[in-house]
Write a structure and sequence with these properties.
alpha+beta; 12 helices; 7 strands; globular
């Protein structure tokens, strides 16, 4: 009887919100119950820079089905990580946003991202969302390279706009207004920018090929994209 009670997952709080139950007091175990389902963390990643509509979330997560996205949003909402809002008129549409507690997870993404970037099997040529690129800037920013420098750079990537400011050894990202930025980098998708920041592609070469456009001070844009360092790859056991 006791064994049946322990293994009956239908009555646990976490399964009620769509998670799994490990029966383990470790905080990491409970974290996996909240966000351990496939796609859950990536849904959170896409909401770091502000609310998004369901369709925009689905478009930024290549391969996710509408049904799975609905399930993940429901479970994250039940856990208190995500909340639904309705934008005021004239938009009057429903959007999803991270709660303040959900927003506190950014350091987890940064540590996990740096750790995984050391994998010999990591493939940087796979699709990359705009939200992921901006989070990578926060993760891979090398304050030593930017020592004593400042930058105010706008990004127009597809339909999304972001502004990144560097100063005092810190990097801040915000979605929205880019008017007045020293330089604005324009590209149809995020991978073109990642190719410069992380792949060693010269910005001028992508400009010449028409893959990237820079408005304003191109020197500021080029300098900014040189302030990121990927960690060394881990070695596989022989």
């Amino acid at each position: 009887m006791k064994l049946e009670k322990v293994t009956d997952q239908s009555v646990t709080p976490t399964t009620a919100m769509g998670g799994r139950w490990y029966h383990d007091a470790c905080g990491a175990a409970h974290a996996l119950e909240i966000v351990g389902e496939r796609w859950a963390l990536l849904v959170m990643r896409e909401l770091f820079w502000g609310p998004k509509r369901f369709g925009d979330l689905k478009a930024s997560l290549q391969g996710i089905s509408a049904n799975v996205l609905t399930q993940r949003l429901e479970s994250l909402e039940a856990a208190g990580v995500v909340q639904r809002r309705r934008l005021p008129p004239p938009a009057s549409v429903q959007v999803y946003a991270l709660t303040p507690w959900g927003q506190e997870s950014e350091p987890i993404f940064q540590v996990l991202g740096r750790w995984a970037a050391r994998s010999p099997d990591h493939d940087p040529t796979l699709p990359l969302s705009v939200s992921s690129l901006m989070l990578s800037f926060r993760t891979m920013f090398d304050a030593r390279k930017a020592a004593g420098r400042t930058a105010d750079v706008g990004f127009r990537l597809g339909a999304e706009t972001f502004r990144v400011r560097v100063g005092g050894g810190a990097l801040e990202v915000a979605r929205g207004d880019i008017d007045g930025a020293e330089a604005t980098i324009i590209a149809p998708e995020a991978p073109a920018i990642a190719a410069v920041a992380y792949g060693g592609q010269p910005l001028a070469a992508l400009q010449a090929a028409g893959a990237v456009t820079v408005e304003g001070d191109a020197a500021v844009a080029g300098r900014f994209l040189g302030w990121f360092t990927l960690p060394d790859k881990a070695e596989k056991p022989a």
